[in-house]
Structure formats: structure tokens, C-alpha cells
Amino acid sequence: MARAAVPGRLSWRVARLTAIREETPTARTLVLDTPHWPGHLPGQHVDVRLTAPDGYQAQRSYSIASAVDGDRVELTVQRVPDGEVSGYLAGPYALGDPVEIRGPVGGWFVWRAESTDPVLLVAGGSGIVPLMAMIRARRAAGRRVPFRLIYSVRTPADVYYADELRHRARDDAGLDVSYVYTRQAPEGWPGRVGRIGVARVNTDGWPAMLEPACYVCGPTGFVETVADILIALGHDPRRVRTERFGPTGG
Ligand SMILES: Cc1cc2nc3c(=O)[nH]c(=O)nc-3n(C[C@H](O)[C@H](O)[C@H](O)COP(=O)(O)OP(=O)(O)OC[C@H]3O[C@@H](n4cnc5c(N)ncnc54)[C@H](O)[C@@H]3O)c2cc1C
User: Fold this and answer.
1) H or E element: which one contains 206?
2) Euclidean distance between CA atoms 83 and 100, whole angstroms
């Protein structure tokens, strides 16, 4: 039976927190040891379930930030104000603590290392997480498929993976990284501060005639705006893959 081919893939398993990396004042990467992890594709997510002592449960989705690496799975969680699950994961959740996870989930918003299409990644805030998994998987697979990342953040302090992105933009041949600052730019920034618009997507993305695979991820409003821009610029809607993380997120 088909189900027998993927035993336990979508059942809950207990992972443990083995390391924490603070990405910004409100976001942290959780490095989880997840026994018998079946592997994943970049872009997939997991469901995380918390259970309170009285049996109350809460469940949310979190994208996988890491490329495949044995039983190690990394998530990056942004603490949202009054957030039930993110407030715990990016707060009191401590080294050695267990958490239940289920996955990997998702088969559409994924990048496959054998693909030869140029790739455009457009991230808003925490939407960088699954796109970073694609950048890491490209590197791990030794691929040089052209990748362009446009990453929209409020301020320079809100950039996740800042050092790694700097190194990869320098060392990974064919990877270009550009930033959109919506509230405050670094000193000497030559560009305009403000929300992403047609001009930036047109300049820093790929022309539609190259038929890139486009991945857009972030708060719902951001994703809808960028998808509309891409389609207005002539990109085939079937090549624009989107992942919405939830409310507008400002
Ligand atoms: C496929 C998928 C992948 C995701 N991957 C990630 C990820 O990699 N990292 C990550 O940090 N989050 C990710 N999310 C969002 C995550 O699932 C939760 O929605 C988020 O952590 C808030 O949950 P909470 O329990 O803390 O907040 P809740 O208690 O559910 O909500 C508290 C308040 O925050 C608001 N809120 C809820 N969700 C969001 C949001 N996403 N942005 C801004 N405000 C919100 C609510 O409207 C409410 O006012 C993903 C969502 C999906 C659907």
C-alpha cells in the first residue's frame, strides 16, 4: 500500500531543542533533534503542537529553515504580540525541552535541486524562512542555478540570517541578494525607503521572458501585492508560487 511507503511521515514525533540562535530581538532559530526524520524539500513546513499540563493543545505551522541534514531540523520563529505558540517557542522554550512536530508538509511551494530554471525569491519579514532553506539546499547540492532574492524588512536590525546572507551573496556563484527597507535603511543606503513596488521587482527580479520560477512568502498582504506585481510584469501565474504566513504583519 502507498501509505506503507512513508511510515510515520505525518504522525507526531517528539523533537528536542539542542541549540538556539537569536536572529533578531524578536526572532530565534530553534535547532531541533528530530529522531528518524525522513528528510524534506526546501520550502516545506512542519506542524508544531504544544500541550499544556491540563491537556489543552495548540498547533501552528512553521517552515523548515535548514537544508536536509540527518535528524537536524531548524525552524525560525518570529514572536508575534500575544502569540500563543510563537510566544512560547521564541520565549521560555529551553534547551533540552521536547516539542511535538509533524511533517514535512507541502508539495507545491518547494524547490527541487534538479530544476534548471532561474529562481526569484521574494520574502517579506519571516517569509525569508523557507526561501533560506532553498538557498541553503542550492548550496548543499553544489548547484549554480541563478537565484535572486529580494528581501523586504522594516529595518536592517530585522534581517534574519544576516551574516550568512552576506557570505552567501559573496561566495555562492549566481546568487544575488537585494533588500527593501520599509521603515529605516542603513546609513548611506542609496535607495528609497518604502514598501516594495513594481520598480524594485522589475529591477531586482528576472524579466518574465526568462520564465523564472518565482517563490513569494510572507504576511498575507505582502504576498498578494508581490504576486499581483509579478503577474502585471508578465510572469505566468503558474510559475508564481506563494506561501502566506498569516495576518498582514504590518
Ligand atoms: C505554511 C506556514 C508556514 C509558516 N512558517 C512560519 C515561520 O517559518 N516562522 C514564523 O514565525 N511563522 C510562521 N508561520 C506563522 C505561524 O504559523 C503562526 O501563525 C504564528 O507563529 C503566530 O502564531 P501564534 O500562536 O504565536 O499567534 P496567535 O495566538 O495565533 O495570534 C496572536 C496574534 O497575532 C496575530 N498573528 C497570527 N499569526 C500571525 C502572523 N503570521 N504574523 C503576524 N501576526 C500574526 C493574530 O492575528 C493575533 O492578533 C507560518 C504559517 C504558515 C501557514
Assistant:
1) none
2) 18
pTM of the model as a whole: 0.95
Ligand 1 centroid to residue 8 C-alpha, Å:
26
Closest C-alpha among 121, 104, 126, 124 to residue 240: 121
pLDDT exceeds 90 at position 1: no
Number of DSSP helices (H) and strands (E) in the chain, helices first: 5, 11
Work out which ligand 1 atom sits closest to the CA atom of 89: 26
* Nearest ligand 1 atom, CA 130: 8
Per residue in 200-231, pLDDT tens? Answer: 999 999 999 999 999 999 999 999 999 999 99
Compute the distance from residue 245 Cα to the ligand 1 centre, in Å.
Answer: 6
Cα-to-centroid distance, 86 and ligand 1 (Å): 7
One-letter identity of residue 134: M
